[in-house]
User: Fold this.
Amino acid sequence: MSRTGLLAQFKRTLQTASVTKPFEKVLIANRGEIACRVMKTCRSLGIKTVAVHSDVDDRALHVRMADEAVCVGPAPSSQSYLDMQAIVNAAVSTGAQAVHPGYGFLSENCKFAQLLEENGISFIGPKERAIQAMGDKIESKIIARAAGVNCIPGFDGVVEDEAAAVRIANEVGYPVMIKASAGGGGKGMRVAWNDSEVKEGFKLSSEEAAASFGDDRLLIERFIDNPRHIEIQILADSHGNCIYLNERECSIQRRNQKVVEEAPSSFITPEVRKAMGEQACQLAQAVDYQSAGTVEFLVDSQMNFYFLEMNTRLQVEHPITECITGVDIVDEMLRVAAGYPLSYSQSDIGINGWAVECRVYAEDPVRYLPSIGLLTKYTEPSVQHNDSKLGVRCDSGIVEGSSISIHYDPMISKLVTYGPDRTSAIERMERALDEYVIDGITHNTPLLREILGNERFRSGDISTKFLEEEYPKGYSGGALTALQKGELVPSVAVLHHLKTNRTPSDDSVNYVISCDEEKVPVTVTLQNGKYSVTFEDKTVEVSPTGGTHGTLQEFKLDSTSVVPLQHLRFDGVTHTVRYRCCKRDVTVLTPLQQKYMDTMPVKVKEDTSNLLISPMPGSLSSISVEEGDEVLEGTEVAIVVAMKMNNSLKAPKSGKIKKIWAKVGDIVDGDQKILEFY
Amino acid sequence: MALSRFYIPCHALVKLAPQTRTAVTSVVLERLEQKKKEALLGGGQHRIDAQHKKGKLTARERIEVLLDEGSFVEWDQLVEHDCIDWGMDKTHFAGDGVVTGTGTVNGRQVFLFSQDFTVFGGSLSAAYASKICKIMDHAEMVGAPLLGLNDSGGARIQEGVASLGGYGDIFLRNVLLSGVVPQISLIMGPCAGGAVYSPAITDFTFMVKGTSHMFITGPDVVKQVTNETVTQEELGGSAAHCSTSGCAAGACENDVHLLLQTRRLLDFLPSNNQEKSPVRPCSDPAEREIPALDNIVPNSPISPYDIKHIVEFLVDEGDFFEIMPDYAKNIVVGFARMNGETVGIVGNQPLVAAGCLDINASVKGARFVRFCDSFNIPLIILEDVPGFLPGTQQEHGGIIKHGAKLLYALAEITVHKLTVITRKAYGGAYVVMNSKHIRADVNYAWPSSEIAVMGSKGAVAIICRGDPDLAKREEEYIDTFANPFPTAKKGFVDDVIMPRDTRKRLCADLKWLRNKSQKNPWKKHGNIPL
Assistant:
């Protein structure tokens, strides 16, 4: 947190010290990192906390952090975290005065807010009517326009039929976006560039909307090409105060899901910021908004901004706003829910420094497929032991030994770094990611690291199309650069030498280091307790800082650069390391061993072209074919449900099905075979 | 042992007598050089090329990879066979198809033989067998491990019973060396017929995927006798022996990998039965707390978890050398280190068949336990066992006697042995898995343990037969037994410990137990139920 941020908080603490705390006991109707995040603020205010959990979460971190915990049902969230009655019962039985819903689950469910109210429990969030008004895309747009908020040119109403769609599209001007009124998450959304695409899009979107939301109402608006996603955090209380905490830029998205966010935006001017903030407040006041909320805008290259939607909850990426403003947003939400006024006025809010957030997901960085399993190694980048690391915040709800299960969101944590300017925040993030030890599951840190180092990202030239444009074929996995090779080779050479020579004496040993198909001959010399590594006509002095154990090792090269290296495994031949976020197998052999290794035949992998393999672990919810059926390549033949997602498995080839290896209801592993073709 | 009987005198020198001393020397030197050159070429360059083409290294190349560079000292390079039948008198190769000698692995002495497939298909003659016997005798004498690199077509048929006798001599030594020095067999090509009994007796047999095979009778004979059509790979490849028969302890991708893994395994083992378990300098703190273990056992007694995760958290640097990873996966065995000292780990694996004990698991566990005891390697038993696997297949297969092997082995051993009950310890399996009753030195239970005669449902059905409220009784049963207290009360566990403290506690115990001295009553040998 910034100095001014700390000061502001201190000031606020003084102000509130005389006031009684907002509640005695609060129930947090969520899990994972956000439940832990809310509890942290509650704790600091001396508020007792109640956790709810499903039976598989019974020893999750949020449960252990809470003063009390109540099991609200079995693993599927529909039977636990979404079971309103069970949660209300938990609140009543534990005597909680208020419920914080976090994000997701019941956070924007007005029925839940209503049910709590009926039971005399405060909902820590806006009033029911505000949730309802902002939850409906058509209604929210009408309200926004009336409140003087810039809206995307479009038709504020339900599009009746195909002909109307074409007429409206022509009025609005191409390109247009057709989207479901009740929609979200990209479902039922289509871009059309001409009349025939509008006709087709209307049909497909209404079908999809009906299937996904049970509501086929559509709306049409101007499609903003290459936009940025910039949102304004607001806070409003029941005393008529409403302030904006400036913006967050969330343009780096994959499939409409945010990946990297920053605050402030590198793009907008103070004037635009002010205009956006004021319009956001106007909208909030128009619906008598009370609590924290986020007004999302699309911003085009001319800095025209258009209202997108309002999220009536605490947002995932709220920590970056907290970093640059010094405001504890959860604290303010608690105060507002208790009927207190906000502890800040608009003039208290500034922008101090720069904050970046990376969402660390348990998913492979290439295909975005979720990965589940036990976190066999997990250490968050440390904040304490080194001054240069100040400004790292890691919001997580897991510890080493926790499991990422198929039932919930695959987000592992939000890693936030803070610095006086954008560059230092980004550099701290790179360092923090390098030191972040996560193993046992696949995760997206290689992609995050890649984005941070991307020149276009560094220059601030980003849009919501960034990932598609920069990685059209998907992230391909970081190839080792010459610079990186110069760091990795001597570090691994010394690590290997330490591991295989437990009582080292002054000597020179030759090795061949293989990584990424490249073989580098090296000489490791130990003289007077100092290691040096000679390779490719240069000699580097290497000082290891760790022993032979421990995952995160640091190697000082020529007493200048420090190389963080995560050592994950060593099977006697191959070291599995994570270096600059990428997992690599590095083999270290003597030149003689390498000479013979080179003569060994390369074994061909088992032919799997006849098999349909489950790409991820999950439960097999349907198989739509039988043995002996003929199917065409690309036909959906099975569905695996993982992480709340239906993953459609398509026939890898055309042909007749020989055998079905799994049955509906089975829990399948990643790589497990499901069907076999002739 | 005074069994070495086969030294070949070099008569050649005597015949050269009339010539001058210098001339003699130079002729001898020339001849020696010639012979040694021949020996290094084995069966000749074209056969070496054929060996390489199969993806295999030669006998000598394998030794180069296996031993510390330059440490190999060869013996009997000049040995030749003395068979004169079937035209054998016309074909001789220096060394006769096997390379034998001694060298070091990470500085420690080992003895080895490496069969040379390029010479007579690696077939075993009497002279060849004598070479092997010689190094076996020396391995015993100095107390160094014996390594056998097998790549042989079998007996040298031309020599008849002399070859069979050679096998017998080797088998006898394998038996006598068993429990004296570690014996490791590497199958790196064919190993057929009677020859398989040498690896079978040794402590660990490893194979190379795709290029090694073991069987008593090959596919041709199988076809003749039983009319069954089977490939060499299906019959006796690494998959068959690593996952189905349990004859092999593991397999590697290629020759180099196998040889390097063997070096790694040797680092865990003492050189002989007089030595204590080796200690390697280690910076992983003995007092390391492991908070992750506090949450690793799921609350639901029917939810599985991977015992190997627990092993990797517990041991030094997470370094675990698993033995038989693909066979009887419901039990996990292997070597690791605690505070630098080698330990044997035996763990029930809840991930596979709920971690129950069946025939294969019992045999796998028993043999590993006996190896560890032979070589003073302390054992850590991680217990989560719902019992023995029921059913006719198991009963008729002899689970009674096979299960007894594990009981016998764990009861008989005198090396220090520690038990940690992580969750279930039910019925007879509780007693078998290194309980206090069979002389375990230290027994710990985690708070998640349930130690009882049987599971709640079965128990209540018996003791409360006819009770109208069985569900209630079951609840009472769970309250009584699904916790470590009844066992702790009787002193059958020494302490109930927090999982995070397990490493700390075990390391401390291993330290004071290093001087443990325990003797069984004198006997010629016990009679383990085979």
